[in-house]
């Protein structure tokens, strides 16, 4: 399917430790996390809260395991705070990722996001006003320009509980931003959970997709989260997300579409679960085997 070396396969630390809920996997050290990633057959990762802040220390630990940094999450507040505040934080983040050799910067708009709030996930997402859409588009175009200064790209992360969650909202954002400055991150789990067809969104925005998160959804748990008005982080603890091959999403056509388009970039398994219930190494191996069989990577 994928031609050799066109796609790089990584895994995010969120199955070992969760930045939004530090109590999950608090016993997992950074060394154990990256060693298990390498052992399971992954060549890259994103950055988590346990990773060393010292850049040389981080580089060395990754080199020892032949691992690379693919990217790291950045929260923007373009709709709610003066641009300067996002800009200052973004430049620090960009420079760190540049030094680590990453080519893309994951950006998620957290203005009015409910992803950390104790409110019903399926009922309380924000809906941006026209003024907020304009602020978001202008700000993202500027962040894209800042990324270009270092030969990097921003990849926008649509996300449950934020103003850019649905297909309609993703379409709108892609329409009102500059295609040369703002690329898209395709996260299978967030689209499926939102009730969208991930394959449809993928086909529509393929040329702008420069980063992929592979997350699967347990449909029965998701239905419970909707019915019981559960919050996003509680839904995570209850197991609404899992690794590819373990849930309801059919990944075959997704891999085929990416491969036929000659997608070049990272695909990263990103499945936040409670590590006390879902052993991270075991989950990483399940996903690795499934991807080998289904995507031939
Ligand atoms: O990319 C991501 C990073 C996480 O912090 C987030 O909550 C998760 O759902 C995700 O997709
Ligand atoms: Co993601």
TrEMBL record:
<dbReference type="GO" id="GO:0019310">
    <property type="term" value="P:inositol catabolic process"/>
</dbReference>
<protein>
    <recommendedName>
        <fullName>Inosose dehydratase</fullName>
        <ecNumber>4.2.1.44</ecNumber>
    </recommendedName>
</protein>
<keyword id="KW-0456">Lyase</keyword>
<feature type="domain" description="Xylose isomerase-like TIM barrel">
    <location>
        <begin position="37"/>
        <end position="285"/>
    </location>
</feature>
<dbReference type="InterPro" id="IPR013022">
    <property type="entry name" value="Xyl_isomerase-like_TIM-brl"/>
</dbReference>
<dbReference type="Pfam" id="PF01261">
    <property type="entry name" value="AP_endonuc_2"/>
</dbReference>
<dbReference type="GO" id="GO:0050114">
    <property type="term" value="F:myo-inosose-2 dehydratase activity"/>
</dbReference>
<dbReference type="InterPro" id="IPR036237">
    <property type="entry name" value="Xyl_isomerase-like_sf"/>
</dbReference>
<comment type="pathway">
    <text>Polyol metabolism; myo-inositol degradation into acetyl-CoA; acetyl-CoA from myo-inositol: step 2/7.</text>
</comment>
<dbReference type="InterPro" id="IPR050312">
    <property type="entry name" value="IolE/XylAMocC-like"/>
</dbReference>
<dbReference type="GO" id="GO:0030145">
    <property type="term" value="F:manganese ion binding"/>
</dbReference>
<comment type="similarity">
    <text>Belongs to the IolE/MocC family.</text>
</comment>
<dbReference type="InterPro" id="IPR030823">
    <property type="entry name" value="IolE/MocC"/>
</dbReference>
<keyword id="KW-0464">Manganese</keyword>
<dbReference type="InterPro" id="IPR023952">
    <property type="entry name" value="IolE"/>
</dbReference>
<keyword id="KW-0170">Cobalt</keyword>
